Amino acid sequence: MSIQSDIEMLSIQAMETYAKRNHITGEEAINIFYRYQVFEKIMIQHEYLHQVGFEEVMNYVEQIIQEDLHSLTVFHGTTKRFEQIDLNKSHNKRALESLKLVRRTFYE
User: Are 45 and 52 in contact (CB under 8 A)?
Assistant: First the structure.
């Protein structure tokens, strides 16, 4: 299974579970996930999230929403726009592939 499909499956499962637990429609859950950038944060943290139990994933999702933050943490110690970061300078090949996936998914 590719990283992208793993992230997509985890995101969909989390969104469906969130909707069911909170007695809301799937569309309402999608809007909440977009508002709080849950999909993007799952993508950023996928390396960790795919190694823990699903209940911990849901705790992470609920924490994101409860914190009411509407921003993403920028990595590489920079305040540059993400699409301008030179990913080829990364020495961590796995992280590099993940960051390229984020860029392709959200910026292209």
Answer: no
Closest CA to 71 of 98, 44, 99: 44
26-68, pLDDT tens digit by residue?
999 999 998 998 988 888 888 888 888 899 999 999 998 998 8
> 59: Cβ–Cβ under 8 A, 6 or more apart, which residues?
none
* Cα 44 to Cα 98: distance, rounded to the nearest angstrom: 8
DSSP states along 18-84: HHHHTT--HHHHHHHHHHTTHHHHHHHTHHHHTTS-HHHHHHHHHHHHHHT-------TT--S-GGG
pLDDT tens, residue by residue, 10-35: 999 999 999 999 999 999 999 999 89
Among residues 18, 4, 23, which one has the least CA distance to residue 64?
18
